[in-house]
Amino acid sequence: MSNVRYLIGNILPPTGYPRILIHSCNCGGSWGGGIAYQLAARYPKAEEVYVDACNKYGNQLLGKCLFIPSYKNDDLIICCLFTSAFGGASHDYKKSILNYTKQGLQAVRAWLYGGRDAIHDEIQKDINSVINKLGKPLKDHKLEMPKINSGIFGVPWEETESVLEEFGAGTQTLNFTVYSL
Which homologous superfamily does the CATH classification assign to the domain defined by 4-179? Predict the structure, then answer.
């Protein structure tokens, strides 16, 4: 059984259950296109948190994840996977993006299964200091995403899908619901 499930529909409306909406993003502080643009329009306070992290750490964020409450919907946490230093036409190479995607998902898994005590990276701890205030444990949230990396970053979806499937074995599996329109 695969750890990647597909749904056709809009990922953005509220769902009524706790979820983490994962998207890939750059370290430049711009939610200017794709799903990030839609998130910025709906959740401007969340975008401010992302921009602050980028301003503070820049490219040191590559391969990390940032959990941000939506500040509008108690059941939604936005998770930024920092997979490219820059966005737009200046994005990183495919191999690098896939490597940073894997690292970011390893961090997601560590947060879900081990919490703060499982994190040894000080930047990770700093940017995710809000996690303790979220109310529900992260592991109680469903992991949902669009076809990350395949839009602006131009990575063929099948290659990102292969990275996701690596998290489907063992005792600390990650199950993803992937949305497409």
Answer: Leucine Aminopeptidase, subunit E, domain 1 (3.40.220.10)
